[in-house]
Amino acid sequence: MSLTILHVADIKLDPYSGMGRIAYFWKKAFEEAGHQFIHLGKENVVTKHPSEFPGKAFKIFKEKFGKKKPDVILAHEPVSGKFIGTNIPIALFSHGIEQREWNLRNTSYKKFHDEVSLRSKVLFPIWRLRNCNRGLRKANLLLLSNKEDQSYAIEKFKRRIDDITIFRNGVKEDFLTQSDINIENKQCTIGFSATWIKRKGTGLIIEASKKILKDGIPVRWLLFGTVFPKEDILKQFPEELHPNIEIVPTFNSDEEKELYEQCDIFILPSFFEGQSLALLQGMAAGLCCVTSDNCAQIDLIQHRVNGLLFKTGDYLDLTTQVELAIKNPKFRKKLGENARESVIDRRWSVVSKEVVNQIEKIA
Hints:
alpha/beta, Glyco_trans_1, Glycosyltransferase_grp1
């Protein structure tokens, strides 16, 4: 039976971005299964602030689907609450439960982030978290990105485990066929790929780079997809490190594989993630990945088996794990080989069909 799926998210379908890439491949899988996939996002919902998106998207929904309603609404967490009560099955998808991240940012990880303003403390829970939490309580299906979020939804929102699916993100197929990484005597390149914001652990990277320099270990740093200009990021590092830091604020799809191929080690020191595409790409590229022990990182990485984990927020532990990888090239290579093997079944065509199967069950 052919279904009409309404996908609602404040994003553009874009195979070259993060959330946009996931939605792009979901759309492709739904259409290949014979379903109609209608995206309601940035292309047709014009807003001045993200707080306007749920209301405006719902208004367009009512105008467009007045008589013939979709069979399932596939809604991003921040907009999901607005669509509860439409008598249409709702599948909420989350790339990291926002209430959980908000709580951590204001408690456990508070010292690693900028101070949250009084205005944000008052308004953010109203315009953002309220819709998230309503959807998390009442949606027919929760598509979550890691086991920590699953446990949180069960405890905080009293959800049944049968109503939750942990979906898998994919990797680009050409990454899985990359040639072996050369470990001959050469300076190690440490890669990082994400927007240069504190939640991604940028402060830890800076402190680790200072410690590695003090320990007399020569390394090259390749920071790509940072968004922020090179000059703004470089000034956060000691000047003596500047010659060994390359910053690529943006890159296109053709350049992505080449950037990963320049790296020997990939780091993701985030305090909070959903299920990082950058980490998955690093694993698919056969890199030794060093990442913080939270969220989907601990679902994906087994310490000293297919990567290295460090205690979240501990730059000394991050440094220890990175230096272990630098000093042991054969061990580093083995971890990378195991990482690639562990994501070999994560081609986008495979993981996106898994999402289609889950949505078909609630239609």
